[in-house]
Amino acid sequence: MAAGNLKIQVLESADAVAAAASKVIVEAIKAKPRFVLGLATGSTPEKTYAKMAEANKAKQVSFAKVTTFNLDEYWGLDGDHDQSYRYFMNDRLFNHIDIRPWNTNVLNGMATSPLIECAAYEQKIFACGGVDLWLLGIGNNGHVAFNEPGSAVDSRTRLVSLTQSTINANSDGRFFSDPKDVPRCALSAGIGTIREARKIILLATGAGKADAVKAAVEGPFSPDCPASLLQDHLDCTFYLDKAAAAKLS
Ligand code: GLP
Q1: Mean pLDDT, all residues of the chain
Q2: Which residues fall within 8 angstroms of residue 107, CB to CB, at 6 or more apart?
Q3: Which residue segments constitute the domains of the chain, with CATH numbers given?
Q4: According to the model, what pLDDT value does residue 3 have?
Q5: Alpha-carbon distance 39 to 119, whole Å?
Q6: pLDDT in tens, 10-59
Q7: Is 72 designated active site?
Q8: How far is the CA of 58 from the centre of ligand 1 (A)?
Q9: What percent of the chain has pLDDT over 90?
Q10: Which residues are registered as beta bridge partners of 202?
Q11: 182 CA to middle of ligand 1, Å?
């Protein structure tokens, strides 16, 4: 199925989505060991990360020459805070594969100047030759990374404010236990930053994502649904389980 340029893969289950995403990433790294891989946090990619770690353990792929860039980080959290995205990535993926820690890039939520931190991040992506593949999730309100509704198609890495719906979604017990503990701001790669990746794969699983997926795929190309701003990307595939795809016509 295709919407605009988007390619849509509907799979049986969240496990099948993870297997498919992991396979795409592993094959791409095998073809280009000095791969530049963009990564995401959240519950959705966790199974994919487990499968990537399995493939590494089984010696099907090495991450030794791979460089990674993460989408975002909570503003005000240090990398050793257990709710920081740096901690999440170390815990769910980096500690389980042969990647060199110094080749993993996550924005510093404690940087002295967000402006300098974000500009340096963009420059480093550029210096590495750009992102080969960026793995994305999607928020219930259609956000990607922490690009909330209203984010511009050409937005770059910057300090952003989180919406109440995102704060609530990330404090439902999976991550923070109380909305009061969730930082109100984050550093986030922009939609423009993400769109420059040569390939994008967006994962969505579960019924809670069905409305956001419908808006992203079938709604207008509009900042009201940031994920819809991927519709004209030349190589973007949404991997969906049946529940997340349920509202597509
Ligand atoms: C957070 C992250 C996003 C992620 C979204 C959905 O807001 N910043 O990058 O896509 O959550 O997360 P989940 O996969 O847990 O539903």
Answers
A1: 97
A2: 70, 72, 73, 117, 118, 121, 157, 187, 188
A3: 2-241 (3.40.50.1360)
A4: 56
A5: 19
A6: 999 999 999 999 999 999 999 999 999 999 999 999 999 999 999 999 99
A7: yes
A8: 29
A9: 97
A10: 136, 238
A11: 13
CA 124 to chain CA centroid, nearest Å: 18
- pLDDT attached to residue 2: 47
Given ligand 1 and candidates 73, 85, 143, 239, which is best to mutate, with the most ligand atoms within 8 Å of its CB?
Answer: 143
Q: How far is the CA of 57 from the centre of ligand 1 (A)?
A: 27
Give the residue whose CA is nearest to atom 5 of ligand 1.
Answer: 139
Residue list, ligand 1 pocket, CB within 6 Å: 40-44, 71-72, 137-139, 145-146, 166, 170
Q: Are strands 67-70 and 199-204 parallel, antiparallel or unpaired?
A: unpaired
Q: What's the per-residue H, E or C state across 58-122?
A: CCCCCCCCCEEEECEEECCCCCCCCCCHHHHHHHHCHHHCCCCHHHEECCCCCCCCHHHHHHHHH
Is residue 27 annotated as a catalytic residue, yes or no? no
pTM, two decimals, is 0.97
Listed residue (143, 199, 201, 198) closest to 22, CA to CA: 201
Which residues of the chain, if any, have pLDDT below 50? 1-2
